[in-house]
Amino acid sequence: MFDVAVIGGGSTGTSIAYHLARRGYRTALVERRGIGAGMTALSTGVVRSFYSVPEVARMAAYSHSYFLRFAEEHGVDVFTRCGLIVVGRGPDADAIRANVEMLRGMGIGVRLLAPDEARALVPGLEVGEGEAAALEEGAGYADTTATARAFHESFLAHGGTHIADEAVALRRGEGGVEAALCRRGEVKARTYVVATNVWANRLLSQIGAELPIRVVREDIMVVDRGAWLVGTHPVVADLANNFYMRPEGDARSLVGSLDPGPRHVEDPDAFNPTASHWLESAPAYAEAIARRIPPLAHAGAAGGWSGLYDVTPDWQPIVDWVDANVLACVGLSGHGFKLAPALGLLAAELVEGGPRTFGNPFALDRLRRGAHRASRYSAKVVG
Q1: Do residues 156 and 294 share a domain?
Q2: Would you say the pTM of this structure is higher than 0.90?
Q3: Sequence-ordered list of residues with C-beta below 8 angstroms from that of 227, at least 6 positions apart, any chain
Q4: Most buried among 135, 141, 206, 361, using CB within 10 Å?
């Protein structure tokens, strides 16, 4: 009998398991696919504090600072600092200006950029009249799989138990769930944490706790920069043209959308992330990049892949009790990796008896009451 069984071994599940084990809980982590081998492996790993919802920004800033000191805690450096530029027009430009003021009031290092400053950081980047651009100098990206594996190694070092199996059902008893039924046996614990991302409702629906989550495809394209820039560049998030771009080595960048649109996926298990879905998005990505950074008009596509988001109605996670002894940390809506350290801390505090560090901006009741914590921006994944 374990104190807690965490189901799901991505960046969120491993962070939760680690935070629980280091607090002395006898913790099991149930994961069959491999640590960080699900949607975590398909994430581009952008890390930033630039969020427009104050409560979420505080959690993002905590996670950002955690990534900066990650090597001190886990013995491996996973974070690359490159900065982040956010650009928008119209209502998004107004939101950027308000967001900078809010974040500066919280002590987060952001500032507005003049067009020539933006061009100096990203050669050829155009910021037009009436648009706004902001810089978060300390932002960057992290190795997502290495992060999950480091959490997992630290979890094991604190006495955690990895059960290499798949939880296929939750069995209820008189006082709540009494066992997680796996393909090769069952796992019994006093408390269960479901951190299974796009597969969450597979388990939760069995105990009458299905959540308002839809699964959405996000396409990633690898761009060969050619002669435009050798080396690194800041992450660019362009709200006006619906793309973001982050460096990948000295000669390539990864490009994705800020609003994936209605690309619903019914069955995550039937989805092939290495299929050519990304080719559907490639023409739109190429046009968007050329509008914002004209020197990249002739950049070549060097490949791509697709991942899946588990999206809630307000594009914010759900972290809450859904049964007497079942805590859900799901519906991450594209924020999961960025917030993984904070989500691990929040879940551990909820298991201990209640949230302390951040409160809980992701309580399920907000959706039931229609009190959504939606982003200021047109693209809700920006947060």
Answers
A1: no
A2: yes
A3: none
A4: 141
